[in-house]
Amino acid sequence: MTALLQVRGLKKRFGGIEAVSNVTFDVNAGECVVLAGDNGAGKSTVIKMISGVHAPTEGNVQFDGSLLTGRSPEAVRSAGIETIYQDLALADNLDPGLNLYLGRERTRRVCGLPFLDRPEMRRNAVEVLRNLGIVIPDPSAPVRELSGGQRQAIAIARAVHWQARLVIMDEPTAALGVPEQREVMALIDRLKSKGVGIILISHNLPDIFAAADRIIVLARGVVAGERRPAETSDEEIVRMMMGATL
Ligand SMILES: Nc1ncnc2c1ncn2[C@@H]1O[C@H](COP(=O)(O)OP(=O)(O)O)[C@@H](O)[C@H]1O
Ligand SMILES: [Mg+2]
Fold this sequence. Notes:
By secondary structure, the chain is of the alpha/beta class.
């Protein structure tokens, strides 16, 4: 069986710095792969080379058997990979419905002129969120009034609604309170059960062990090792993050 995502020999140089060297891994459908590593290890740079934000200096990425490398972030998204960045990329002044359709707005024609179909987008947003077990008290309120967990849920709902087959999350729980962190972790489980592949970036050990089918540890831009949660321990993962050779 070919993996859903195949990352092969990725390297990224920024000026004189080699931020990422020879990173290779696979993600299967319905599998959560955690990229773990200390600050500056190269985690965000790796996912930006997958999502089309950075062109790799060397290496390539295949998704569902076709080459992703060289495509724009929009093209990668259309191919079925949704990336949820740490700073979220929601439009704070818009309601959840408009955020769900951001960049893909639905319009209807009135007297031949296109208008945003806000009620339709809002209804769909409420429905998608309800299917994820999230109730938004006022669907017409701008998302800036929502909690961090609800905002994260909208970003995840966007991935579900557009039927992403791979969801990449860069530190999704870093800015959240404990109950909201639990909500996001439960959403990850639901995505997995729908067969969606997940790449989760985290340096929170309980999250890593709760979510991961496989843990890939990056240290100073290289893969320090790969483990299944059942065959390793907090101590070993921390040692690998610190760059101990195995
Ligand atoms: N756009 C950039 N220009 C120059 N250096 C960068 C850029 N992005 C990241 N880096 C450097 O690459 C290294 C890895 O960064 P990053 O991928 O953000 O790490 P992580 O997400 O694991 O904290 C760091 O040394 C960082 O300073
Ligand atoms: Mg980062």
